[in-house]
Structures are given as structure tokens and as C-alpha cells.
Specification:
This protein is about 40% helix and about 25% strand.
Length: about 150
């Protein structure tokens, strides 16, 4: 799936609320399946969510992290946490992926989850945790826009 303007892969966008099945499998939202069908890497994200990265995005991130000096304890620590929980997955014909128990525990996932498109990755959150996080962030969202976005002409 490509962006019709640039030929680049389409951005992963939107929020979906599927349920994990009794085996801890997630049915990927149909909107994300074409980008994740060839394979993905699931790993720990920030704020206790999971990152689902298309394989090419995972490789790009890994190469970026790998460029950090080996002498950097911060880089070594980040790489260890990032890779130690990583699991490469290929969705089945129904678009399901298994979330390993260690990752379900890390993210505190119950049956109800939020699956959000975050541009180049998908994030999986426990639904209640996501709703709390979103409510907390919405208050500062408008203020943050001034710092993150360039000024817009009127």
C-alpha cells in the first residue's frame, strides 16, 4: 500500500478496539493488514504499550540504534530492552498475530485492547490504560502543538 502522492508506504492511522482471544491472539485491523502481512516485529514500546513494526521499519530503527557508540551505556540499555522482548511474527490468513505472554504482561493487556496507528508503527495498549493516557494528554495537546508544529500561515 503506497501513498498516492509520494510512492512512500501509507501511514498507519486510526484507533481500533479489537479483543484478544483466549490464546492471546490479536486480530489486526483490516486497515493495517497489507502493511503488516509480510511480517512484523512486536516489541516493548514506551508508556507500557507494544510496538508492532513492519519489518522494514524495524530494520531501520535497529540500524539507527546500532549506530550509537558501544561505549554508551544508555544505548546498550535501550537496545537490550528493545530487542530482548522482540518477537517476529507473520499474521495468519485471518490477520491474527500471537502476543507472547511476556509482552502481554509488560503492557498489562487484558482482553480489551486499543490498537492505534502511530505513523510508521502500530501501538497496542490495554484499552483502559489507553483511555487514561489519552485523557491525560488531551489537556496539553493544544499547547504542545505550538512546540511541535511549525507556525501555520493564517
Amino acid at each position: 500500500m503506497s501513498d498516492t502522492f509520494s510512492g512512500a508506504p501509507s501511514l498507519l492511522l486510526g484507533t481500533f478496539t479489537p479483543r484478544l482471544d483466549e490464546k492471546g491472539r490479536l486480530i489486526l485491523p483490516a486497515k493495517f493488514r497489507s502493511q503488516l502481512a509480510p511480517g512484523l516485529v512486536m516489541t516493548r514500546g514506551q508508556e507500557r504499550c507494544l510496538f508492532l513494526l513492519p519489518m522494514d521499519e524495524f530494520r531501520r530503527m535497529y540500524e539507527q540504534i546500532r549506530q550509537a557508540p558501544v561505549a554508551s551505556k544508555q544505548a546498550r540499555d535501550y537496545l537490550r530492552v528493545f530487542l530482548s522482548g522482540a518477537s517476529d511474527e507473520i499474521p495468519d490468513k485471518q490477520g491474527r498475530v500471537s502476543i507472547p505472554p511476556v509482552l502481554r504482561e509488560y503492557a498489562g493487556l487484558g482482553r480489551e485492547v486499543a490498537v492505534i496507528g502511530a505513523g510508521t508503527r502500530v501501538e497496542v495498549w490495554d484499552l483502559a490504560t489507553w483511555e487514561t493516557y489519552l485523557a491525560e494528554q488531551e489537556a496539553s495537546y493544544a499547547q504542545t502543538a505550538e512546540e511541535v508544529l511549525p507556525p501555520m500561515p493564517l
